[in-house]
Amino acid sequence: MDQVHTRAMEALQPFIHLTKSSSATSPRFVANIITNATTSPHTYVFAELLEQPAVQALQSPDTPAELRGYLTLLKIFAWGTWQDYQQTPDLPSLNEEQARKLRLLSLLSLAATIKPITYEILIKLLSLSAPSDLETLVTAAIYASLITARLSPATTPPTVNVTSVAPLRDVEPTSLPTMISTLTAWESRCGSVINDIEAEIAKIRADSAQRRTKEHARVVVIEKILAGWNPETAEASLLPEPIARGGSRKLGWKPRDIGAAFKNRDFFGGSNKREFDDDGYFDEHADEFEPIESGMDIDEAPGSRVGGLSSQGARHAKRFLGKKL
């Protein structure tokens, strides 16, 4: 679509150069330039031609009345429609090419403002006599890259589905204040949205910083706990209280015996369901077990003491430890 606008601007340049020639002082010569520019098949923008002093001079009181209408005609080709031409009096008549050009330009404006655009509306606004004339005009606009559209004559009602319009219509100067007001309101809404987004970003960053602070404090606490942890003290806390207070030495236990006790979780009421049997484990259904021959030499005579234990204490230790110890 941008290439179409570029070609249209290039097609207008020869007519602009003519308005700067010495002959442009003649109102009729300028009127002929306007007629040729609006008839040319590749010219669709006319604002630059309108700005030329020779063209603006047509509104002078010295200009013949029959030639003043050419300036108004050029304005209609720049930003007007076919209806504007029909409703404006004292305008020059159009040749066939000019009429086709103005209908094409009007189609661009209507396609950008009316949704959906039906056959009935276009036939009425463009003063066409039959649907076939409309289809011919729309097809010409499509092949000229003025619009991207699809004809749907079988729908109810028949429609012209326009998806894009080339930027070939000029802007009327009197519409600029309205456009500026609309753009200002849009800018204000955009600014409000940006402020909301920035506030949300700030909140997310604050929450993230707070989470990092809590995580850092947790890590510091864990590091302090690990720094004061003593493996030997922690292991003693897992032993039965008599053993933790040195009872293992009183019972004649050696370090390897304590290690074996740690390996058997049933010793501490763990989840291991195995009991010593004849090989040194409990019988599963036995409430009490008989002493099993131990490698320890203990005198069981009444009142005798072995290793600082009475015979009763020795029997208890023998029963408790079993052959596996």
TrEMBL record:
<dbReference type="InterPro" id="IPR000717">
    <property type="entry name" value="PCI_dom"/>
</dbReference>
<feature type="domain" description="PCI">
    <location>
        <begin position="4"/>
        <end position="165"/>
    </location>
</feature>
<dbReference type="Pfam" id="PF01399">
    <property type="entry name" value="PCI"/>
</dbReference>
<protein>
    <recommendedName>
        <fullName>PCI domain-containing protein</fullName>
    </recommendedName>
</protein>
<dbReference type="Pfam" id="PF22061">
    <property type="entry name" value="CSN7_HB_subdom"/>
</dbReference>
<comment type="subunit">
    <text>Component of the COP9 signalosome (CSN) complex.</text>
</comment>
<comment type="similarity">
    <text>Belongs to the CSN7/EIF3M family. CSN7 subfamily.</text>
</comment>
<keyword id="KW-0736">Signalosome</keyword>
<dbReference type="InterPro" id="IPR045237">
    <property type="entry name" value="COPS7/eIF3m"/>
</dbReference>
<feature type="region of interest" description="Disordered">
    <location>
        <begin position="295"/>
        <end position="314"/>
    </location>
</feature>
